[in-house]
Amino acid sequence: MTTMNPPTMVLPSDQDATGRTLGDREIELVTEALRTGTLTSTKGSFVARLESAFARQIGSKYAYACSSGSAAIHAAISAIDPEPGDEIITSSITDMGALTPILYQGAIPVFAESDPRTLNVTAETIKPWISEKTKAIVVTHLFGNPCEMKAIMDLASLHGIPVIEDCAQAFLATSGGRNVGTIGTIGCFSMQQGKHMTCGEGGLVTTDDPVLARRMFLFVNKCYGYGDTNADHYYLALNSRLTEIQGAVALGQLEKLEECVHARTTHAAKLTAALKGIPGIEPFPVAEDATCVYWKYCLLVDANVVPDGAIGLARLLKARGISSAPRYIQKPAFMCEIFQKRRTFGKSEFPFTLARPEVLQYNRTQYPMTFAGLEHTLVLPWNERYTDEHIDYIASAIKEVLGH
Ligand SMILES: *Cc1c(COP(=O)(O)O)cnc(C)c1O
Which atom number of ligand 1 is nearest to the Cα of residue 71? Predict the structure, then answer.
């Protein structure tokens, strides 16, 4: 007996032109940048234009561009200037690029538990880790869904601790009526290929604080005091500048950002409506005072209802041409070798050697909600080029494989 394969539809992908909006406008800007003959942002105007337009768009006083989202986090951590062994509370489920800069600056990432329904950190999960060694809190707004910032900011200001928002997945998402990246002390963004706006690789930092702004500018520029009388390299820093070509592409992308977010959110609302009432699956909840910008579309999958849970549903969807990611990442960041084997600088294990032992217990028993959260998460790919037909296709595929 042969089984008929159901017809499949190819979804647009954010890894190529099908799911990206790169086009004539970017080509025009890149051409313009090239013709100037100035490709470094230290002399050109495209990166500078990007920075002021982005600050305006987000509503921050300062914005600086850099080479990646990881570099953005690194600039932020460097600006906060932890002493070796200082602790920085962060998310268990996040991109490695949000964590390695902490170690490079000699500080200890201290992992907070995740809300199992959003995988985000919360004030309640951060609170138990606050100590006299806490130098900053880094929160990741995962999948474009903001962390509950009011409670987090209340907690942080009670202790006088700065908050860094990792907005790599959350361009123009809001919490309490404000754009993420303007609520905490510093905002960090990524313009990597798959983010809401892209120039292949790239990053942005935002802040209202002039001192931190200056330190982040310096960090991206080998800490050279351009324009200062008696300019010098003041302290340890890298070159993580964006090029003018990347700046030109990003400038074109920024013009389309609102439209991109609108497309992603309206289609997400359509899918949410279409999936309403299907037993065993539920979209990730969005806080009442927040707007989610859907970097991806996430489902909570109940393994008591759906055979094999998220993994089972992913397998069935794969046969319909929909490649989803059960669990998002295979394991929490602290299960990677960097943390488990302390692979850092030579054999030194620095800076872990300076850490309190209780913050280094990277295991399942310490983080039950993080592991449980990953277990029942299914991440659907998402981008601004989805049409109503794609949404109908995804919704009917899900209904069909769940026998609804
Ligand atoms: C993409 C991403 C980063 C890192 O950005 P890169 O540009 O890849 O270095 C950091 N944090 C989060 C949450 C991300 O999604």
Answer: 9
